[in-house]
Amino acid sequence: MNKSKRNIKGFTLVELIVVMAVFGLIMLGALRLLDPVNRMMKSASIQESNTATVDNIKRYFEGTLRYANAVYVHNGDLKYYATGGMPTVIGGSEEDRQKEAVQALVDNVFINRVDESDTPITNGTAYVMKIDNDNQGRITESVFSFDAGYKYKQWNPATSNWDIEQTRPANVSLVSFDQPVINDVYYENYSIFVSLGYNTMQAVEAGIALPTPVEDKQYFGQIVPEKADALGNAIFSPSDFAFTFTTYKNQNGTKIYHHEIDGKHIFGSPYSSANASLALLNINSAYGGSYRSNLDYYPVRRDGNGYNPTDMVDDNADLKWDYEKMPDGAVTYARVYDSNNIAGGNNIYIVYTLPE
For residue 182, what is the DSSP state? Predict the structure, then answer.
């Protein structure tokens, strides 16, 4: 019995190549359609991370800085103003530098100070918050205790008056150093860059030579002040106490997401930014007293001819401290060192005290 033969015909090589080419074109089109979706997902991911980070940091700031009774902000590095008014970076070890910055605040604000009930402020606690933009924007805090200094006037027998002014400076001691205040989990995939003032992110201006991206289609943005002075620098002051938080991806191999070019901070996508502003509620009201109509008066200790500079009230009940008017600008409860960052540096230090 003869069986009929069945001819089985397959695809030719040309047909297979044509089919693969068609599928390739379809896949390419699908990927092009999905590319915006992927970018939106990346943007949403970093926006979510940025929101969580900023909310966490903002809550910490609001719980501390908002209620400070003295705040000194050092932009770029710990600095002081030398003769001529130019900012100069404080030298020495990190611990010594922070201690010197605390000493400057305490000597300026707390010398001869009294609280609202006219009780001498003989000791207190100061804090140094460090925003380390060179280390993923990590935030640490050091704590210092201080014994407040005072000025006093010695009796001068030659003039029969208290016209010999003496000063006993404050003593500052370290309690804890550079303790992290923000959980490391926020820095696992992203870094944070903190800027003073209220800023926005804009496309990179023409003329700046952008770095060559490792991956195609990497977009770049730069920090631009929303509120700027005549020189184009972000306005930051006790009355405009605002910060901008820019979140960006950690370095991926040779791909770097943060560049400093021509004095501008440039960020490669994906990135996101948000602002936080605080009202310094206690700065102008922490030291009110019944003996003074405002903050312009302070107690003067007298030593000699029956007075003792270690006592608030002399043994003789009739001999209390005198209150004298301070020179204009003698005490500054809120100060910004180098707001335009003339002396350079990326980190920010906030030295502050809280009501006891």
Answer: S
DSSP one-letter code for 237: B
> For residue 262, with 0-12 CB atoms within 10 Å meaning exposed, 13-18 middle and 19 or more buried, which class applies?
exposed
**How far apart (Å, rounded) are the C-alpha atoms in residues 90 and 306?**
42
By residue count, the chain amounts to 356
* Structural domain spans, the chain: 37-353
Inter-CA distances, 278 with 65, 116, 225, Å: 8, 24, 17
8 Å CB contact between 199 and 226: yes
Among residues 228, 348, 217, 210, the alpha carbon closest in space to that of 267 is found at: 210
C-alpha distances in angstroms, 315 versus 2, 173, 177? 137, 31, 41
In contact, 249 and 214? CB cutoff 8 Å: no
Ramachandran angles phi, psi of 52, nearest 5°: -65, -40
Query: 268 and 222 in contact (C-beta within 8 Å)?
Result: no
Cis before residue 270, ω within 30 degrees of 0? Answer: yes
Q: From the CA atom positions of the chain, what is the Rg in Å? A: 31
Give the C-alpha separation, 162 to 303, whole Å: 8
Mean pLDDT by 10 residues, the chain (356 residues): 56 72 73 56 66 80 86 93 83 96 90 68 91 94 91 82 81 96 86 92 78 64 88 85 90 85 85 86 53 51 61 46 58 84 90 87
Backbone angles phi and psi of 89, in degrees to 5? -70, 135
Look at the block and give the residue holding tokens 């310094």. Answer: 280
In eight-state DSSP terms, residue 295 is T
Cα torsion at 234, 236, 239, 244 (round to 10°)? Answer: 80
Q: What CA–CA distance (Å, rounded) separates 154 from 150?
A: 13
H or E element that contains 268? strand 264-268
Q: How many CB atoms lie within 10 A of CB 237?
A: 14
| CA 330 centroid distance within chain | 25
CA distance 85 to 35: 53
